[in-house]
Amino acid sequence: MHGDHWAKWLGSDCPALLVHGRDSQALPGDQAAAMVRRRPGTTLVTLDADHFVQLRDPAGVEAAVRTFLAGL
User: Fold this and answer.
1) Which of 3, 21, 22, 56 is the most exposed place for a label (fewest CB within 10 A)?
2) Measured between alpha carbons, how far apart are the two ends of the chain, in Å?
3) CA distances, 30 to each of 33, 35, 46, 62 (Å)
4) What is the pLDDT of residues 42-67, one digit of tens each?
């Protein structure tokens, strides 16, 4: 959470899926949008959840991953 992680995030150009919880306390929506803008090939899926999106909406995460993988 703390620090500058852009170099790591931008260090690959392989397709990426970013599953974002709309009410995340750790990753604001504008930061998620910036991550997608700055890294081509990134797919953003925003779900109605907090930062623990995999616990709050496991079916949504599963659907996002399945859709993402099917598109590769």
Assistant:
1) 3
2) 29
3) 5, 9, 12, 24
4) 999 999 999 999 999 999 999 999 99
Does pLDDT of 2 surpass 90?
no
> Which residues in 34-56 are b (16+ Cβ under 10 Å) and which e?
ebeeebeebebbbbebeeebeee
User: Coil, strand or helix: which one is 1?
Assistant: coil
66 and 38 Cβ atoms separated by less than 8 Å: no
Q: State CA 27 to chain mean position distance.
A: 9
Q: What is the DSSP string of 11-55?
A: T--S-EEEEEETT-SSS-HHHHHHHHHHSTTEEEEEESS-S-HHH
